[in-house]
UniProtKB/TrEMBL annotation:
UniProt-listed NCBIfam families: PRK05461.1
Limits of the ApaG domain: 3-128
PANTHER family: OS05G0170800 PROTEIN (PTHR47191)
PROSITE patterns to which the protein is assigned, alphabetical: APAG
Pfam families for this protein: DUF525
Protein name: Co2+/Mg2+ efflux protein ApaG
InterPro entries (UniProt xref): ApaG-like, ApaG_domain, ApaG_sf
Originating species: Flavobacterium amnicola
């Protein structure tokens, strides 16, 4: 598990390998990731959008931007946590993801970025 704290918001990430399958005559490697967002600040905040950079071992990079996470824009009061799960596909058995969440602080009404630490995606059979 990797963690990082930005402006009182703690992000923790755990990954899982979900399996392989063929799509369009090419093997794909499916990974799941489970993210916990913990508000350790004194202010209520809301996650508004996300930005991901997904890299595989073949030097392919995919950028994903969107509103909220898994269709939600969670509000976290001080001390609250929000956990969600999602996933991605890679064309290689190794890769990584990193990015950030755009959040708004309800006290100051200002937007800020919460960094998501780089986390590795590795199929266990591909490790030596």
């Amino acid at each position: 598990m990797v963690t990082q704290i930005t402006r009182g918001i703690k992000i923790s990430v755990k990954t899982t390998f979900e399996g392989t399958y063929f799509k369009n005559h090419q093997m794909h490697f499916a990974f799941g990731y489970h993210i916990t967002i913990e508000n350790q600040s004194k202010d209520s905040v809301q996650l508004m959008s996300r930005h991901w950079e997904i890299h595989d071992a073949l030097h392919f990079k995919e950028v994903v931007d969107g509103e909220g996470v898994v269709g939600k824009k969670p509000v976290l009061k001080p001390g609250e946590t929000y956990t969600y799960s999602s996933g991605c596909l890679l064309c290689s058995p190794h890769g990584s993801m990193n990015g950030y969440f755009n959040m708004i602080n309800f006290t100051s009404t200002k937007s800020f970025k919460v960094m998501v630490p780089t986390f590795n995606l590795s199929a266990p059979f591909a490790l030596n």
